[in-house]
Amino acid sequence: MQLPPKVTERAFDRLAEIGAADQGKALRVAVEGGGCSGFQYEIQLDTPASDDLVLEGKGEKVVVDSVSLPFLSNATIDFADELIGARFVIENPNATSSCGCGTSFSI
């Protein structure tokens, strides 16, 4: 059974900080072929589409398209503010391996 991804409070807080909803945008998390491990995450501000799964919190939205959804089943979308920089990160239980850049993975 596929479970939708979860979005942490930190991720929604960061979207509120950058004013995504005020611009009519949502955080789009997509999975595309490519990258050094077979698949890669595309994370960007985008306008929600009619067939997106919409995850809402704190007045902000995170959207996932129907093609990417199976790859993100039960994943956690988070925001990390570390020494190497601040970025949205995906903790994905479906990934069997990932590369050092954190944006590429394999299943």
The total of helices stands at 1
Relative helix content:
under 10%
State the shape: globular
CATH superfamily assignment?
HesB-like domain
CATH architecture: Sandwich
Mean pLDDT: 89
Please give the order of strands in the largest beta sheet. Answer: 4-5-2-3-9-8
Number of strands: 9
Ranges where pLDDT stays below 50 over 5 or more residues in a row are none
CATH topology: Hypothetical Protein Aq_1857, Chain: A
Describe the structure.
It is a single chain. The chain has a single domain, classed as Hypothetical Protein Aq_1857, Chain: A (Sandwich), CATH 2.60.300. Helices cover 9% and strands 44% of the residues. It has one helix at residues 9-18; strands at 6-7, 26-33, 39-46, 53-57, 60-64, 76-82, 85-91, 97-98, 104-106. The strands form two sheets. A six-stranded mixed sheet has the order 4-5-2-3-9-8, covered by helices on one side. The protein has a three-stranded mixed sheet with strand order 1-6-7. A hairpin with a 5-residue loop joins strand 8 (97-98) and strand 9. The mean pLDDT is 89.
